[in-house]
Structures
1.
Amino acid sequence: MTPPMRAAIGRYRPIAPLDAATTDMLATHLRRAPGDLTTISPKRAERFVMDLLSDALECEVRAVGKPQDGGVDGYVIRSDTVRSIVQVKWRRDTAKAESVSIVREVAGTLLAQGIPDGIIVSTRDHFSPNAVRTAETIEHRVIAGLGRLRLQLVDYHLIMDMLEITTRKLTAGLRAEDWFPMEAHDKCCVFDGASRLTIKDV
């Protein structure tokens, strides 16, 4: 007689504040609970965004981490050279549009930094039509000594896409024991309302 199969079903909740979680744990958690995205502090969000961009662009993305950042939250590094600046706007209200003012601000930062490429990451649902038009206009400008300017606009939905990339990379090639290490049980989460199923042969 075949022994019955058993399995546990439950839902988890994090013990530690999200700000204290590693990028891997944050990415996994936010795939399950995207509504928690804006509960991360702006400071932690900057470092988190740099990690997401690093996975998406497959290169080093370095957080600046200074109080007076001069309009720069991070740098995209390729071949030991700064290729892009990153500005993060972590809004708690995601429903609105990101305004054109941040596009103009980052355009000025590109000129001040002498770097032609910029990435604006916002938790807003979308960028306003004026913001999109202004970014497109800026991209048609060719500056002596810099070349053509380029601005990439990353909204809430593209952040979700980057989470998907990071999660996919994280889970690729994992063994069964890597999913939930025993020593992590008391550090990261608990199972809330778990139940056990027993399946018997009929």
2.
Amino acid sequence: MERDINIYHCCTQKTASRWFKVFFEHEIFQKYCPLEVSSYQEVRWEDPETPGRIFFALYTDWEHFVKMPKPEKHKFFFMLRDPRDVVVSWYYSVRYSHAVMGQIGDWRKCLSKLPMEAGLKYSIRKLQRMGYFEKQKSWVKNAPKESIFTYEYFCKKQFNFFYWKLFKRLGIEMPKEELSRLLKECSFKAITGRRRGIENRQSNYRKGMPGDWMEHFSVDVYKYFREMTDNVHEELGYE
């Protein structure tokens, strides 16, 4: 792996960005990709053209990413997630587990007073007004297709996701047995002590399962989502 290169992990919130930090900082990953791991907050304060780093969880749309100064040698990828699952994940995060900062406290007070269905509608409105879905669309409409990776495939086929997809994109060579060990040590169970799908509402790693929206969206909530977002899930390829 070249050391005079930058890698940009672009995404929106609720796409396993915390997990990727753990993965990138793990000693096995660093052995085969020895780049300094920097958070998205540091992009604002440090020169993003400085080579030799992985910027994780860069919450941005395609247009801003293109304009951001970058070294000549750089690679990037974007994590996409079903926006319906995003709504559910955002609801539980703000309602229970997210650290109180910024507007989280006010949003939590509102959600604590609302029944589940109304809370999901509240979450849809907030995400829409914050431009969350527009960020997703900007990548799907404009970025190279080979740069877009889905949360769903990441959850279901982790080894293939990394070995055959992401590592090929980033130019990372890692023996299969090392990747298997890395994924085991960074697994949902290793981090949380729970099997994937076992819920803990107080944890930032609540459940880790795609398709959760089907258990939470009533017919009315689904209709509301479609109307508020103009069927954004279809534009993103989720239907």
3.
Amino acid sequence: MPCPRTPSKLSKSVHRQLNSYALAASAAGVSVLALANPASAKIVYTPAHKMIPRGLPGMAYLDLNRDGIADFKFENWWLSATDAWLSSLSVFPAQRGNGNGIFGYGTADKLGWIYFPFALRAGARIGPAQKQSFFSAKYQEWMYRAGGAWGQWRDVRNRYLGLQFLIKGKTHYGWARLNVHCNPTSHKITAVLTGYAYETIPNKPIIAGKTKGKDVITVQPEASLGALAAGANGIHTWR
């Protein structure tokens, strides 16, 4: 018959370390599930509700894997004068030439070669395939430009950007979900990021809008970083 074990007592120093760890996790708004190793989670999903600010331009940066390095940049232009106005929404890699790209198509125009990201529906497959092109434009990639009604992002809800980016030199795929609306009177564009996700396994496709399943981990935005404003220039970073 096995001998009963006497419960061991933790030292005061160990108690202090555990308490400090719990408080730090709570302050950062991170759940116990979110502290799991992302490599074993396969897909990391972050819900959000962040508006892309308007300005000359209004700018926001998206850090898909929350490593402190911006992966993509949004610009929401709005300029009004007595007899003219300009309103446009665009997205492109935060750093040029780093291997990041947006799933879309390009076309020749009188302005030159321009790029348009697809407004994907939930269930679309994002990943390496012959018919998919991830552009890293030299200039802006238009999601929507009022006036000419360019792009696929005019007045849409729950549509997805297909994203390709590098983690330690290896290609990963992800998505960002947005709602976009253009006011027909003021021509101001309202764009709201409602969530984003990425696949932790290199070169593995991801399904747009997949937020549940045994291979998905949900990470709540860090309280101190979810709506970080960098001074008066209207630059926001989401991590």
